[in-house]
Amino acid sequence: MRDVLDELLAWWREGRPVGMGTVVATFRSAPRPPGAAMLVGPGDDGAPPVAVGSVSGGCVEGAVYDLASEVATTGTPVLERYGISDDDAFAVGLTCGGILDVFVERVDRTSFPDLDEVAADIAAGRPVAVATVVEHPDERVLGRRLVIRPGEAAARVSGSLGAERLTDAVTDDAVGLLAGGLSETLTYGPRGERRGEGCRVFVSSHAPRPRMLVFGAIDFAAATARIGSFLGYRVTVCDARPVFATATRFPDADEVVTDWPHRYLAAEVDAGRIDGRTVVCVLTHDPKFDVPVLDLALGLDLAYVGAMGSRRTHDDRLARLREAGVSDDALARLHSPIGLDLGSRTPEETAVSIAAEIVSARWGGSGRALTTTDGRIHHEGAHRD
């Protein structure tokens, strides 16, 4: 929903109903992750309905467009599965071999009265999750939703899923998903039974952007910050040398900090601003900077920790980290020398190499050319917002 939120909110404020299709589950090589959305909104001056966004990169957009146009009129939500047919691989549009479930609903002020508040939370970077019933034996429950916001003592919840037990179960699970920035479909019994079936609830998590911490204010850091921002990270460049750590040198970074790397990282951990989606790129290749920060980073639950340097620098760094007490298990999580083997030479090429390794680590890719591999192109895994 995030990708189409501006258009959705504009129609919502005008009081004009919109048909919205959301990917709520994927199987095999589905092209878009859970949470991808497509809107079918009213055209101006009698023009045909307008499509915004995508659920499949073009494969089944036509079918979803027709269904969303109908649902926008009837108000009756529909959960539709799209995949390939053994008889005719082109019959339903998903020629990539994947399968996806798309929940199509009407969105207006009545069906989603909290949309403006949710949009404000997302814009401000405040964590919020939206849980929607996408399958239930009682058709009256379909499309009901909760809006969940984490709190110090307990989550703050608006809306109801009908049965109190179902509302409580979904709230508890949504808080956990939100903490990890994960969006996925959960299964319960019709009244919220943990081991039951028949009810599916899609939880769309909108957490603040994941963070990329780049330590070392060098030219490679500028290129890494640029591609990190392109990938959707909130990028911080940190260096203890004020003459190098300037906003002018790193225009693509969200912030530039002058501090010792390990001290800055420790402060961010204490402040609760580091989570399992955070990636750390240590580009200083100076032991007085990189050993203390890597000692700390390798003891945290982070998505990725990489360090730049030659083979000789890497061997020396490992020896220093072992002397500092870092275990072999922790060292095995260190990506060093940083990046995939692309033959990179320039800062920009090296940044592509680093970004490729981060993506590979996130989704479990091999880093090999697809022409040399078999099986699925898109790897499985819970989607992180």
Automatic annotation (TrEMBL):
Domain XdhC Rossmann: 212-358
Transmembrane segments: none
Phylogenetic lineage: Bacteria, Bacillati, Actinomycetota, Actinomycetes, Micrococcales
Protein name from the UniProt record: Xanthine dehydrogenase accessory factor
Highest taxon in the source lineage: Bacteria
Pfam families (alphabetical): XdhC_C, XdhC_CoxI
Cited Gene3D superfamilies: NAD(P)-binding Rossmann-like Domain
Span of domain XdhC- CoxI: 11-83, 122-189
